[in-house]
UniProtKB/TrEMBL annotation:
Biological role: Gustatory receptor which mediates acceptance or avoidance behavior, depending on its substrates.
Ranges annotated as spanning the membrane: 56-74, 86-108, 150-167, 179-199, 258-282, 294-316
Keywords annotated in UniProt: Cell membrane, Membrane, Receptor, Transducer, Transmembrane, Transmembrane helix
Main localization category: membrane
Protein's UniProt name: Gustatory receptor
Signal peptide: none
Lineage top rank: taxon: Eukaryota
Pfam families, A to Z: 7tm_7 (PF08395)
Stated family: Belongs to the insect chemoreceptor superfamily. Gustatory receptor (GR) family.
This protein's encoding gene: LOC125778227
Length: 396
């Protein structure tokens, strides 16, 4: 799975979403001969040069985002209503800041993202070797590819249709200057959706293995022929489950570390984008615009944003549910094992249950909010409050 992700991420470098980290080599040895040092330097030079070129490209992209932002402010055409101009400027500035955060994370959080990808590789092999789990890798690759293609094609089709209708409208504020910003933002949220989808599949596999262990304890007469139950109830097997869970928890921590601020900025800018788009639709219905066709373009603009935000919140919610399901099955296993298992096995179970009670697997926007289905409700409430304030300015 890691190799497939790297193949997909290779194309995201142009948008500042991913850059492979610096390769730390140890070619130079104090006791080596001068000839060996020259050979090592010649081997290392192309790698360093290529890495420097990537970093320069991302720095140029950061400067380009700032240049486009200033150009958009200077060339702004008059917008009907002071509230419309203020909200559009705020949204434009927030989108530019979000893109700066995304590119900065790709530049300065590359080590954490690389460690996250290596953890995915380690989790996959631990499931295969330590738990003997047939994780059906080809099915998971197809599932991740389907998620990626679905979100990409939906965003592309709706984006093209929205641009087609927006070309016929007169008052567009900063829309044309912010197209590049919106492209980076939506590709970033799709990238994070794929990451969370892979982690959810790994958690589902771990949960299924623990369910087999619980089923063996509750119904020992209903055993399957292709499952090695003697190994399933050993201390080493339970320790392998705990180690894989630790890797999963660390992977979620790394995800929040290298993508937390971009998640926070993306969700915030999407909330304001919702309110701004709906406000412009309301202005067109009330006759403040030359046409009422803003609702057509606004609809196609909001559909992919709604799909991606709901999708990542749903995937994060499923991960939290699987984490709670793991804790519930472990508690059930602890109750059934209290009288018949060996002492070390019970101690490990108790430690594992305590660990799950003290730490929860969640995806946060830099600890400002938790991504789950409750966040969708919070977004709707915030958007409604913003719309009420904008309507008050409209009626004043």
């Amino acid at each position: 799975m890691e190799q497939q992700l790297r193949a997909w991420l290779r194309y995201s470098f142009a948008f500042g979403l991913y850059m492979s980290p610096n390769l730390k080599t140890t070619y130079i040895n104090n006791r080596a001969a001068a000839h060996s040092k020259r050979l090592a330097w010649l081997e290392r030079k192309p790698i360093v040069t290529k890495q420097r070129l990537k970093e320069i490209c991302l720095y140029i992209q950061l400067v380009g985002i700032c240049v486009v932002f200033v150009k958009g402010l200077v060339s702004l055409k008059p917008i009907p209503g002071m509230a419309s101009e203020a909200v559009s400027t705020l949204l434009y500035a927030l989108q530019a800041l979000t893109c700066i955060i995304i590119v900065a994370e790709g530049l300065w959080r590359q080590q954490q993202q690389e460690a996250f990808l290596r953890l995915l590789h380690e989790i996959e092999f631990s499931l295969k070797l330590r738990l003997r789990e047939d994780i059906k890798l080809h099915c998971w690759i197809s599932c991740a590819r389907w998620h990626l293609q679905y979100l990409l094609w939906l965003s592309l089709i709706c984006f093209v249709v929205a641009v087609y209708y927006f070309m016929e409208l007169q008052h567009m504020a900063y829309y044309w200057h912010a197209i590049w910003y919106n492209t980076i933002i939506r590709l970033r949220i799709i990238q994070l959706c794929v990451y969370v989808c892979v982690l959810r599949n790994y958690m589902a596999c771990l949960c299924m293995k623990l369910q087999q262990l619980v089923a063996y304890r509750t119904a020992p007469n209903q055993q399957l022929l292709d499952v090695n139950y003697e190994k399933l109830q050993t201390l080493a097997y339970l320790l392998a489950i705990k180690d894989i869970y630790d890797l999963l928890y660390k992977a979620f921590e790394l995800l929040c570390e290298f993508a937390g601020w971009s998640l926070f900025a993306i969700i915030t800018s999407c909330i304001l984008d919702y309110s701004c788009t709906l406000y412009w639709i309301l202005l067109s219905f009330e006759g403040f615009m030359e046409t009422s066709a803003y609702y057509v373009a606004g609809f196609w603009w909001l559909v992919p944003m709604t799909a991606t935000i709901w999708h990542i919140c749903y995937l994060c919610h499923k991960c939290s549910q699987l984490d709670r399901l793991l804790a519930a099955r472990l508690r059930r296993l602890l109750i059934m094992s209290s009288s018949q298992s060996m002492r070390s096995y019970r101690i490990l179970l108790q430690l594992f249950c305590t660990q799950l009670e003290l730490q929860c697997i969640v995806v946060t926007g830099s600890n400002f909010f938790i991504l789950d289905l409750r966040l969708v409700t919070a977004i709707l409430a915030t958007m409604t409050s913003q719309m009420v304030m904008l309507i008050q300015f409209l009626c004043a």
